Amino acid sequence: MIANTLFTAVVTSLALVSGVRAGMAETFAYVGNADSNSISVFKLAGNGEMTPVQTAAFTGIEKPGSSTPLTITPDHRVLIAGVRSQPFVAVSFAIDPKTGLLSPIGNGPLADSMANIATDRTGKVLFSASYGGNKVALNPLAADGVVGEPKQVIPTGLNAHAFLPSPDNRFVFATNLGSDQVLSFAFDAAAGTLTPSDQPAIKTPEKSGPRHFVFHPDGKFVYLIHELNGDVAAYSYEAKSGAWSEIQRTTALPEGFSGKPWAADIHITPDGRFLYASERTTNTLTAYKVDASSGKLTTIGSVPTEKQPRGFNIDPTGHYLAAVGELSDGMTVYAIDQGSGALSKLKSYPTGKKPNWVEFLTLK
Length: 364
Fold this sequence. Notes:
Elements: H1 2-18, E1 27-33, E2 38-44, E3 50-57, E4 70-72, E5 78-82, E6 89-95, E7 102-109, E8 116-119, E9 125-130, E10 135-140, E11 152-155, E12 160-165, E13 171-176, E14 181-188, E15 193-196, E16 202-203, E17 210-215, E18 221-226, E19 231-238, E20 243-251, E21 263-268, E22 274-279, E23 284-290, E24 297-304, E25 311-314, E26 320-325, E27 330-336, E28 343-350, E29 355-362
Antiparallel strand pairs: 1-2, 1-29, 2-3, 4-5, 5-6, 6-7, 8-9, 9-10, 10-11, 12-13, 13-14, 14-15, 14-16, 17-18, 18-19, 19-20, 21-22, 22-23, 23-24, 25-26, 26-27, 27-28
């Protein structure tokens, strides 16, 4: 009896060390590969180890696009990939609820080459932004997750880059990288329609190039990264009106930077304590500590990463960050120090060609 008890304790201890925890919900990383027209699927262990489990190809797509934006529906049932070569389509995959593997469902039309796609908070429509087409669009999503014909196509300023809903789903915001502004739209979720909001455009410094943004989990702050000058700006967010008010401006550029900034992506941990930004000229990730009350940022420091880190993301536990390199065809996983927010490199993995987007999902 004692021997059995000791054996069970040893097995349990080894399982915890290896990251295979009994009853632990499984987490997967999905990497969009532009030149491969595929998605690399990895299983994430509790210790940060990644195991490749699938390469899901886009059926009927031959020509590579400039990037492969991804989004996952709020119910975790469907992953959607945007294809930026003609004919411009959104490819929908069913996510197996037990294995995390992808199965193609069908393709639907996009209004243009879309740099960014995202569902609304209900998963009933798909928002998309066209950098080259200077427009945003709204497509309905069928019950099975296949994208329908565009319902609205709205001209914007130059180079629409991100188009994301507010936490309460009442507004949708579009960055215009070439016009140095963020546009605001009111969203009627019941009707599935957009109208320009009463809020004026949020202006950013000239030639700053606002690119991607992320809301703080508590919905009180927004963080915006600027491609052309490397700025990271913090804003307070007023949910009732959808107004942004700048409270701080810092940088994603590492100390001693020289050259032309080329900032890319920005993400925040699920608990809102740490923020991260990627910069492609220096191939670095910069970490920030977020003040919970003021929303302001304190720079922690920068670490080297994959070559041309256009995309990265943080796992749902907030313990790991995975960054991909468009020119390295690889992904590096980092541990996030839960006290300081500092990044520690764990391991690198090959992906498909020209990876640019990462989505994490923990199965329900």
